[in-house]
Write a structure and sequence with these properties.
Helix content of chain A: 25-40%
CATH architecture of chain A: 2-Layer Sandwich
Number of helices of chain B: 21
CATH topology of chain A: Alpha-Beta Plaits
Helix content of chain B: 10-25%
CATH topology of the largest domain in chain B: Dimethylsulfoxide Reductase, domain 2
Oligomer: heterodimer
Distance between the termini of chain B: 43 Å
Strand content of chain B: 15-25%
Strand order of the largest sheet of chain A: 8-1-9
Number of domains of chain A: 1
Radius of gyration of chain B: 26 Å
Structural class of chain A: alpha+beta
Shape of chain B: globular
Radius of gyration of chain A: 19 Å
Number of strands of chain B: 33
Largest interface: A-B, 31 and 31 residues
CATH class of chain A: Alpha Beta
Number of domains of chain B: 4
Strand order of the largest sheet of chain B: 26-28-27-33-25-31
CATH class of the largest domain in chain B: Alpha Beta
Chain lengths: ~270, ~800
């Protein structure tokens, strides 16, 4: 199976936030209570959260001595070898061959190791609820299975978000950069970061000016997370006992309250 | 729009001036992006750096309210540098026409001005006529009284220094914009002009648009694929509303408003039907009698007869101004007793909204028809008001949303598209058509019991199948068939017999003798048969690129008039019917087959037989025009509230615009800052729909004011602070967003600060806040009376 990916072509982004709202609609996530703006420009909310998996950022940057307004997009990068999945003791996070890193909430024990393991600071925990889970973008794996494309890509009016085969999109990104060398920095963010991701960004300005995480290893995160995990088997055992009990309690509660939603993520 | 959203992809240069298209028409960006992919240059002109500016290749900052100076400078640049498409201008515009000696212009005033009435006698702006009554022409365009020579003299005053001193645009930036845009003078280069409310909402808004039209004509961009003057409509069906005569000054199909001086059909027609003695002019409006008669037959059916002037006397004849602000003022004065607000929210959306809210309190009753409780429907319990002091009885009727009813919608590109009903409306919500039908039934019942002049109501044709429906719902197909038109009696047209009840095939078949009825002549041909399968609005045929290389999609929905996708397309070809730009041919004359190919041409005549601009009696487009009350050429005047004296003349602001209350106008000494209002992607108009939608409220929860770091520093304001902004009319509180996207402008020798405020907020809904319209003034453009929302004076301080 060919690995799918998203290409985020930031110079094509108009900052309309159709993607951000389409994401909330697709997953029926709650609106957050915001006041004024949560970040530079029109950014809202302030950060990714348990309810916000896709976030457009607004960056006022100087380009050739002129003030420009450049938009960025934050979401799960869907690493080729995801640190979150390797850190998960119960395989609640799974990398699909088709690209998405998905979450099995029925397996999750709530340890939040995934949050620590993610170099992009993406997974979030539902601290506000009595029965919290991890949440994050799933690259609309369920839509892909049904032959669709991710909701954000579907909503984008200008083709700033393209869905397709990762290899093809990398060639497309290289083609766009080569065709307009003055319009892009020569960097496909996600081609090598964390060993490669299934969300690729290209930009007209250096990514650090858009607040992108730059101190990401080029090698897969698993190289950094696995030794750490191996060093603490006893801790794991203990944790597994405690959290396993909590898991048993929760699944019982879940069975009592609602039918399991098979195939539906989150 | 003369063209269509899709057509933007063909442009070589896209000028976005007077619009924030990318934010407020996000899907427009889809097509502009396609133009960019093909190498187009996008220019954004705006008082602030918007999401549209960020999307563009070239940004021109400018002071709000100075569009005419900006565009006149471009016209001058084109004229001075011979960047005009000469053959187009010579044959398809009135540049060659000679003007009579009475026309003149001096120090900001055209001839014929009367100070006492603040109006022009437009008969002074006439063509010189030959003995047969046809305007005299000089095809060399060298005659000193030719329109082209008079234009050159008029526009020469708008050199780059003068323009930039008014607009505040840096000269090199402005020169580049002139150079880029006027490059489309070449026959095979096309420029597309996009505008919206940033253009129209000024005391000279109509002249702003005229200036675009003049430039587009000089460059030969009208009628071309990728060209045109394109008004991007703000509401999805606002095109439909004006097509159907919802504005106070027109009847369906843009037929004129009967005024008190037109008491009979013959006087109405005498005043409004244009004549031409030029055999080359198609003068299509000579068909006026057919269209008004057919409309009257649609309204009153068998009660409209030749003997009673087709019931013309039933139409109300207006006296004076009935535009929006005039209505609010009349309400305020107690002259209006009741009000229906269909999807309209004057407590937020109109200028000087404090006054509008007061005016609602002077009504005896008000009916709001909307999806949500709007600010207007709860005006009587707004903050700071004691409901016991307001006697207005308010009714709120829940309305069905567009997806909860079947019907049509007409988009900016004049495509009328059929919509099916997706879901049932919730609760007691009903379609607008049902509500109106009930109203008609109730009025009829009341008039059956007596009353003055009952005939217009009692005899109204209202046969939309409502009685046959279990819920009394009128059948939208019947409405659509009436809009298309039908024969009321058997009629022989050129040897073909049409039977009474047959649907009319197109507006060429409409008659002035009462044998046809038609609800809106421009829609004739949209539903030419009796069955649902005949409904061309519902067509959804994909286009074959081999047959439709421009992607005009002729079999997708239906476009008025006669499914013509690009207006004035006869101007896209030369005298032999061959396209100026063969790679983007809209139409083409096939001399062998003796027929036109491509889009539906502006009239069937072979090339050369008729002049291309068939809706003008001259047959050509008007660089010089008498149609507008404020001048034949657009002249720069300052907004009514302006920080500077007008550098162009002694006339400070439009000499004919309407200022309702001079006492409500502020002076720059007291109010030194220029302000403008606008919208954001995340909210919709007066906010009833979006301020009740949590996902959108999350994105933009609070009213905010954008200001430059310079101004913020001088006032001690930081991002996130609450600030007060005030004008002569009122004040509001908003959060400050300090941004480099606003910059002070160097104007008339000094720096002038500008700020901007979106106006979507009110006191109803889940996101509450002050409307920017608490600040705006009751000032109207003299042609349309659209209020001057976009440029006014204010001051601000940290709250």
């Amino acid at each position: 199976m060919k690995t799918k990916a998203l290409l985020i072509d930031l110079p094509r982004c108009t900052g309309c936030r159709g993607c951000q709202v389409a994401c909330k609609q697709e997953y029926k996530r709650q609106a957050e209570k915001t006041t004024f703006f949560g970040g530079p420009g029109y950014q809202n909310p302030a950060d990714l959260s348990a309810e916000t998996w896709c976030l457009v950022t607004y960056n006022e940057v100087l380009v050739n001595g002129r003030h420009d307004w450049v938009f960025g997009k934050r979401q799960c990068m869907h690493c080729e070898v995801p640190g979150c999945a390797s850190a998960c003791p119960v395989k609640a996070l799974e990398k699909l061959d088709s690209g998405p890193v998905i979450y099995h909430r029925e397996k999750c024990i709530g340890c939040r190791y995934c949050m620590l393991a993610c170099p992009f600071v993406v997974p979030r925990f539902e601290y506000e609820t009595w029965n919290p889970y991890i949440t994050k973008c799933t690259m609309c794996a369920h839509r892909q299975v049904a032959g669709g494309i991710p909701a954000c890509a579907k909503a984008c009016p200008t083709g700033a978000i393209t869905f397709g085969d990762r290899e093809v999109l990398i060639r497309e990104a290289e083609h766009r950069i080569a065709g307009n060398p003055g319009g892009y920095v020569h960097h496909i963010y996600g081609m090598e970061e964390a060993g490669g991701t299934c969300v690729l960004h290209i930009s007209s300005v250096p990514f650090e000016e858009l607040g992108y995480v730059m101190r990401v290893p080029r090698s897969p995160m698993v190289a950094h997370t696995e030794p750490a995990m191996k060093a603490v088997p006893m801790v794991m055992l203990g944790l597994a006992t405690v959290l396993g009990a909590s898991y048993a309690l929760r699944t019982r509660k879940q069975r009592d309250n609602q039918p399991a939603e098979s195939g539906h993520i989150s | 729009m003369t063209n269509h959203w899709i057509d933007m992809k063909h442009a070589d240069v896209v000028m976005i001036c007077g619009s924030n298209a990318v934010e407020n028409h996000p899907i427009a960006a889809h097509w502009i992006m396609k133009a960019k992919e093909n190498g187009a240059i996008v220019v954004s002109c705006d008082p602030r750096y918007t999401r549209t500016s960020a999307f563009s290749d070239h940004y021109c900052k400018m002071r709000s309210g100075t569009d005419i100076a900006f565009v006149n400078g471009m016209i001058n640049y084109a004229l001075q540098n011979d960047r005009i498409q000469l053959e187009y201008v010579r044959h398809y515009t009135n540049a060659t026409f000679l003007l009579n000696p009475e026309y003149g212009f001096a120090d900001g005033l055209f001839s014929g001005y009367d100070q006492a009435t603040r109006s022009y006698d437009r008969s002074k702006w006439a063509y010189a006529l030959d003995p047969s009554g046809v305007p005299k022409r000089d095809l060399t365009m060298r005659h000193p009284r030719s329109v082209l020579q008079l234009m050159k003299a008029f526009y020469a005053r708008y050199d780059i220094d003068t323009v930039c001193n008014i607009t505040g645009t840096p000269k090199d930036v402005y020169r580049k914009a002139c150079d880029v845009y006027t490059s489309t003078w070449a026959p095979d280069r096309v420029g597309c002009w996009l505008y919206a409310m940033g253009t129209t909402q000024h005391s000279h808004g109509t002249q702003n648009i005229r200036s675009y039209a003049i430039l587009q004509l000089l460059l030969g961009n009208m009628g071309m694929a990728g060209g045109g003057v394109n008004a991007m409509r703000g509401e999805s069906n606002v095109q439909g509303s004006t097509d159907m005569g919802l504005l106070y000054h027109s009847l369906p199909g843009y037929l004129g408003e009967p005024v008190a001086a037109m008491q009979t059909l013959s006087t109405y027609l005498e005043r409004l039907t244009p004549t031409s003695n030029d055999p080359l002019s198609a003068n299509w409006w000579q068909n006026y009698p057919k269209y008004i008669t057919s409309l009257l037959k649609a309204f009153w059916g068998t009660h409209a007869t030749k003997d009673n002037d087709f019931a013309y006397s039933y139409l109300p004849k207006t006296v004076g101004n009935h535009s929006y602000v005039a209505l609010v003022e009349a309400m305020h004065a107690g002259a209006i007793k009741g009000l229906f607000c269909f999807g309209m929210n004057p407590a937020v959306g109109g200028p000087n909204s404090t006054r509008a809210r007061e005016a609602l309190g002077k009504l005896e009753w008000m009916v709001a028809i909307d999806l949500f409780e709007t600010d207007s429907s709860v005006f009587w319990k707004r903050p700071g008001t004691d409901p016991s002091t307001i006697a207005t009885e308010v009714f709120l009727l829940p309305a069905a949303a567009s997806v909860e009813k079947e019907g049509s919608i007409s988009n900016s590109g004049r495509w009328c598209q059929w919509r099916y009903k997706a879901v049932e409306p919730p609760g007691d919500a009903r379609s607008d058509a049902w509500i109106i039908t009930q109203l008609v039934a109730g009025l009829r019942k009341a008039y059956d019991a007596g009353g003055a002049f009952p005939e217009p109501i009692r005899q109204l044709t209202w046969d939309y199948g409502q009685d046959a429906d279990a819920h009394g719902e009128p059948d939208p197909h019947r409405v659509a068939r009436e809009i298309n038109g039908y024969f009321t009696e058997d009629k022989d047209i050129a040897g073909k017999l049409w039977k009474a009840g047959d649907q009319a095939p197109g507006f060429a078949a409409l008659q002035a003798d009462g044998s046809t009825a038609c609800g809106s002549w421009i829609y004739c041909g949209s539903y030419p048969g009796p069955n649902k399968a005949d409904n061309r609005l519902a067509r959804r045929e994909k286009s074959d690129p081999a047959k439709d290389p421009l992607g005009m999609h002729p079999n997708w929905s239906w476009c008025w008039p006669v499914n013509r996708r690009i207006l004035y397309n006869r101007a896209s070809v030369d005298a032999h019917g061959q396209p100026w730009d063969p790679k983007r041919a809209v139409i083409r004359w096939n001399a062998d087959a003796k027929k036109w190919e491509g889009d539906v041409p502006d009239g069937p005549w072979p090339p050369g037989e008729k002049l291309p601009f068939i809706m003008r009696p001259e047959g050509v487009a008007c660089l010089f025009a008498v149609a507008l009350v404020d001048g034949p050429f657009p002249e720069h005047y300052e907004p009514v509230e302006s920080p500077i004296r007008n550098p162009m003349s002694a006339v400070q602001y439009s000499p004919v615009c309407k200022v309702w209350d001079l006492k409500s106008i502020g002076e720059p000494g007291e109010f030194p800052i220029v302000a403008t209002t606008y919208r954001v992607s995340e909210h919709w108009q007066a906010g009833a729909m979006t301020r009740n939608m949590p996902w959108l409220v999350e994105l933009v929860p609070d009213v905010f004011v954008e200001l430059s770091p310079n101004l913020a520093r001088s006032k001690g304001i930081r991002t996130g602070d609450w600030v007060r902004v005030w004008t002569k009319r009122g004040e509001l509180k908003a959060r400050a967003l300090v941004t480099n996207r606003f910059e002070p402008l160097f104007v008339a020798g000094r720096a002038v600060d500008q700020i901007g405020i979106p106006w979507h907020w009110g006191y109803a809904g889940i996101a509450k806040g002050d409307s920017a319209n608490l600040l705006t003034a009751n000032i109207g453009d003299p042609n349309t009376f659209i209020p001057e929302y976009k440029a006014f004076l204010c001051d601000l301080a940290k709250a």
